[in-house]
Amino acid sequence: MGFYLTIEQVRDLARGAAVLGTGGGGDPLIGRLLVEEQIRSGKKIEILDPGELDDSGLVLSTAMMGAPTVVVEKVPAGKEVVTAYRALEKHLGEEAVATIPMECGGLNSMVPLIIGAIADVPVVDADGMGRAFPQLEMETFGVYGISGSPMVVADEHGHCSLIDTGDDNRKMEKFARAVTIQMGGSAYIAEYPMRGSDVKRTAVWNTMTLGINIGKVLREANEFHRNPFKELQAFLKDTIYGHGVVLFSGKIVDVERRFQSGFSQGSARIQSFDEKHELKIDFRNENSVAYRNGSVVAIVPDLISVMDEETGAPITTEALSYGQRVTVFGISTPEIMRSPEALDTFGPQAFDINHEWEPLEALSPKDWSVD
Questions:
Q1: Are 109 and 14 in contact (CB under 8 A)?
Q2: Cβ atoms of 107 and 64 closer than 8 Å
Q3: Is residue 326 within 8 Å of 249, Cβ to Cβ?
Q4: Rg of the chain over CA atoms, in angstroms?
Q5: Cβ–Cβ < 8 Å for 16, 218
Q6: Mean of the per-residue pLDDT values for the chain?
Q7: How does pLDDT run across 116-147, given as a tens digit for each residue?
Q8: Torsion sign (Cα): 274, 353, 316, 2
C-alpha cells in the first residue's frame, strides 16, 4: 500500500540509502535537507507500491549523474532534476503518472522525492539497481529490455541536452557522461521512459521502504545500545537481500582517490586493530571489490558498505579518511540482479576486475573475526 513520507522516514531513508549506496550514489545529506524543506513547506510525497501502478501509465526514472566528490562542492538547488523531468515529458508529448529512482543508494534515493514534492506525482517504491552503480546501463530496467533513451540531462542553469541512442544503453551512458562532464562534473537526468507494466517486470521492488527500514534499524540500535551490525543482519534475513555479514573491522590507514573520466575512482586500505590483517577496497564511485589479506571476500554486484565501527553510520567514498575506525559490511544482492544477463551488465568484468563473480554467501558465509 502507498503512504506519505514523514520527516523521520526521510531521515531513516537517508541513512539506509547510504548503506545501500555502497559508498556512492552521492551524499544523501544534501538531498535529505532538500526533501525535508519540501515537507515543511506543506508538500506531500507519496510512495507508491509497484503493484498499484497503472500498467499503461508512463513512468520516468530520475537521478543525479556524475562523481559524488563533485556534488559535495556543487550543491544542487533541487530544481535541476525537475527541469530534466519536464523536458522529457515535453519531448514524449505525455505526462508521467509517477517517477522511479534509478538507484536506491545515496543522494539518488532523494532526488525522485524532490520530483514527487514539486511535480506532485507519486514515487514508486522500487528502483533499477537495488543499490548504487556508477553507469546508466547498469540498471535492471535495461537488463530486461527497456531502452534508457530518449533521456534528458540538465544542469543548474536550466540547460538541457536530449540524448537518444535507441536501444544502445551503453552508448547512451557514454554520451550522457560527456555532457555531464561539460556541465561541471554533475548533472540531473530523466531517463528510461517506461510503462507501469515494465516497472513491475524489471524493477527491484520495495527498495525505498527497505532503505527506510535499514535506517530505522540502525537508529534504534544506537538509541537502545544494541550492536548495529547484529541488528542489521537479523533484519536482512527476512528481505529479498537475505545475507548480511561483517567482512572486517579496523582502522583506515590509506585512501587514494582521483577524479577520472567522470568518476571518483580509487582504493582504501584498512588495517585490523591488532595490525595483523588488512582489507583493501577498490571503488569506482561505489565500492566494487574487497580483498582480505589478498583474497576476495566480496565482489560486485553484492554490496560492500564501510560503516562507523561504533555506531554503524555509513561512510561514503568521498568521506573516507585516515584514522577512521570502521566496520566493513557485506550484503547479498536479490536474485533479479544475479541472472546471467544482469552479471553481464554489472558484474566484475564491467569494472575491469579480473575475478569471476561468486555470491557473498559463498565467499563470506559468516562474520570475520581475528583468529
A1: yes
A2: yes
A3: yes
A4: 19
A5: yes
A6: 94
A7: 999 999 999 999 999 999 899 999 999 999 99
A8: negative
